[in-house]
Specification:
The chain is an alpha/beta fold. Helices cover 39% and strands 20% of the residues. The protein folds into two domains: 156 residues, VC0802-like, CATH 3.30.2130.30; 203 residues, Rossmann fold (3-Layer(aba) Sandwich), CATH 3.40.50.620. It is elongated and about 85 Å long. The structure holds adenosine-5'-triphosphate and magnesium ion. Adenosine-5'-triphosphate binds next to helix 5 and strand 11.
Length: 377
């Protein structure tokens, strides 16, 4: 089939009562950004209709549309004048059980839905020798949507889209993006619930390479079809790492580095109007991600909430999502992260705020944070 129209349906936006207009406006804008000048978009009869695209590009276009948060399903369609519907039925290639569902929105159409479904079914049966009608348990359903203005949409697929809410309707997040598997998935989940995202990455040159930086850029790029355009802030933390490593007890180094990440992220978030910080942390995944470890971070975030979308996920669930959204292959490329530069032999599992503060007395915290932000790109 060569589709000349794509239909996209939206979901939870329906529930938004008085805010519905705002949600719809944002969804429309995000769809326009996603398709650019490659097709025309109309919002008609409670769904989006995409037309005027190059015929051989429909598959790629469908893929882009299905990644826009807020949509529940997409269908490639053949749109024809009413008198051409049966010609489309003649082209169907069906093996096995099928039924035809007719929706007659144009009440001037000369047949009832039931009558016309039977006519369509008979047309298909004449051409497809191995097809049989089964109204109750069909393998294929052919949908025929008869609209006003002499147009009918014929389609056989209702493919799931990503769901969620339109990006930008829930505010803007600053996502701590490492080069690992978890944080890109956390960004994706945050966007799925309507957060626009920017990224902050902590690098430690020369211990971490340009290749590592390039990997982070590509991860941000891989998320763009879902999350939209974003900014990537890169903050060098080499000096911070060196001071921590030289002056603090070994078991607290990672915890204290993470506290610096929060201080810096909070500052950037406040300067740039981000409503929250997002991390890929996951309860008990590593020593620093215990409740006590998380608590030592939370106290530094002030009024900026830290969201951790993956907190209760199993690693296998995170990997499955990373594969689905297309970040996994990039994440598993081997490059050093600043957290892995000076790994303590046994990081503390139950850190306390008091002990963190005691270690941090040896460091010039404000100066280090200020310098790191000055060197930000
Ligand atoms: P994985 O666990 O798959 O190796 P990760 O990204 O979760 O990758 P962790 O060491 O578990 O890495 O770090 C927990 C979280 O801290 C990350 O999800 C990320 O949000 C943040 N983080 C860690 N290192 C960095 C970094 N270099 N820059 C920005 N954020 C980081
Ligand atoms: Mg992790």
């Amino acid at each position: 089939m060569n589709a000349n129209v794509i239909i996209a349906r939206y979901g939870e936006v329906h529930l938004k009562g008085n805010n519905r207009g705002m949600f719809m406006q944002r969804l429309t804008k995000n769809l326009r950004d996603a398709v650019g000048k490659d097709c025309k978009i109309e919002l008609k009869n409670g769904r989006y209709i995409f037309t005027e695209f190059e015929q051989d590009k429909w598959c790629a276009l469908l893929d882009r549309i299905a990644k826009v948060f807020g949509l529940t399903s997409v269908s490639p369609c053949v749109a024809v004048p009413h008198d051409q519907i049966l010609r489309v039925m003649e082209d169907e290639q069906i093996n096995g059980a099928f039924r035809v569902n007719v929706n007659r929105a144009d009440k001037k159409f000369p047949h009832t839905s039931m009558e016309f479904a039977a006519i369509c079914g008979a047309t298909i049966l004449k051409k497809c020798k191995n097809a049989k009608v089964d109204l109750y348990d069909p393998d294929d359903i052919i949908f025929v949507d008869i609209r006003e203005d002499n147009i009918a949409y014929v389609y056989g697929e209702v493919n799931p889209a990503v769901g969620g809410l339109p990006v930008g309707t829930a505010g803007r997040a600053l996502v701590l993006l490492s080069g690992g598997i978890d944080s890109p998935v956390a960004a994706w989940l945050a966007s799925k619930r309507g957060l626009a995202v920017d990224f902050i990455h902590f690098s430690s040159p020369p211990y971490t390479s340009d290749m590592a930086m390039d990997k982070v850029r590509r991860l941000a790029g891989a998320l763009e079809p879902y999350c939209g355009k974003s900014r990537l802030f890169t903050v060098p933390v080499t000096q911070i790492l060196q001071q921590i490593n030289a002056l603090c007890v070994d078991e607290y180094t990672i915890t204290i580095l993470r506290r610096f990440m929060v201080r810096i992220a909070r500052e950037i978030a406040e300067q740039n109007g981000h409503d929250c910080i997002v991390t890929g942390e996951n309860l008990a995944q590593v020593a620093s991600q215990t409740i006590q470890g998380i608590t030592t971070n939370n106290v530094l975030a002030g009024a900026t909430p830290i969201l951790r979308p993956l907190i209760t996920y199993d690693k296998s669930e995170i990997i499955a999502l990373a594969q689905k959204i297309g970040t996994y292959g990039i994440s598993v490329e081997p490059h050093q992260d600043c957290c892995t530069v000076f790994v303590p032999s046994s990081p503390v599992i139950s850190p306390t705020i008091a002990k963190c503060e005691k270690q941090e007395q040896k460091l010039e915290i404000n100066a280090l944070v200020k310098k790191a932000i000055q060197d930000m790109e």
